[in-house]
Amino acid sequence: MSTDTAKAAGKTNFARVPQGVPAGGQFAATAHAESPLSLALENFAPSETILQQAYKSSRYWADRYGLNRKSNVVEVDDVAQEALVRMFENVSRDVEIKDWKKYMTGMASNVAGSSTETFYRHENRVAYRLFEERCQEIINREQRMPTTAEENAIEKDILDNWHDPRHKPGKNFRIAFTVERSLDATSNEDMSGSFADTLAAVEQTRNVPVDSYMDRAFDALDEKGVASKAKARRLVWNALAEGTGVPLSREGSLSQRHVTRYRAVMNKHEGGIMAACNDWAHGNDNEATEALFAPFGADLDVEGQEKVVDMLERLGAEKALPMWESAISYANNKHAEK
């Protein structure tokens, strides 16, 4: 070591261990300050908890968008790590985060969505639904999964024989994995089936427990009069959600004044209820997202919110609003059964 180098090395703020101790010649132990980012993250939750939430949200959205079917390069690990990095970057920039779990969920949704090139054209959704039905026919008939050649043939047939040449689905409609499918397999392709048809289809395919929401809805449908049909509509959300893990509407939990305000907010929100779902998925809290979850109680957690949004998006734009209306009407204390 040169003299200059030795002198430079001596210009250090670290204290050497005094001569004669076993570790002589080594630098003394120094307590390093915790990084500002780590300290900022600890304001939300322990790092391990944040990591667990990142993977939980990433698994949910990866499954939701069919990541394993549509990407050979992006996996759940990639989604979780990218979501974490984006959150860390925003924390380091002092971006205000009111609900870190919801924020992480939004980040995971964005990453998974962009990784699968998901978009929401109506024609693509309908085409994909037809594609799924044709594949299911092969599964039922042949007791096997369709081959790649069969899937490609189905795709070509759907595109070649589309009913409206002016509004055809994109050639990559199989990538645009639908998230707005009906909950029941008997819905019309244009998703115009009535709630009564939906309930009737369910009645034909499953045993309905006595005194369940579904049973009560059937009873109301069997009765005559406008009031009975209105009662059935109020029960539709809970009838379909019951037993699936999707949150139920809380009977009598909202006043008429609150119901009126939430309806007005949703009606005025640009893009309606589907836009409110999208706002929530991207972590944008507003009056519409508040109205969206109002029927399900103030204690609804992030996981419950995910399930509500998932159900509405699977129903699609045409059915989502009436279904939400069902939930908020049931929550109206004006209709609570005494």
Task: Describe the protein's architecture and organization.
With 338 residues, the chain is mostly helical. It folds into 3 domains: 80 residues, no CATH class; 46 residues, no CATH class; 141 residues, no CATH class. Helices cover 59% and strands 0% of the residues. It is built from 16 helices and no strands. It is globular. The termini are far apart.
Comma- or semicolon-separated keywords:
338 residues, single chain, mainly alpha, 16 helices, globular
| Regions with little confidence, pLDDT below 50 for 5+ residues | 1-39, 176-208
In total, the number of domains comes to 3
**What is the arithmetic mean of pLDDT?**
72
* Multimeric status of the protein: single chain
Shape: globular
The class by helix and strand makeup works out as mainly alpha
Count of DSSP helices? 16
Rg on CA atoms, Å = 27 Å
Strand content: under 5%
Span between N and C termini? 91 Å
Order of helices and strands: HHHHHHHHHHHHHHHH
Percent in helix = 55-70%
Q: Describe the sheet with the most strands.
A: none
β-strand number: 0
In short:
This protein has 338 residues and is mostly helical. The protein contains 16 helices and no strands.
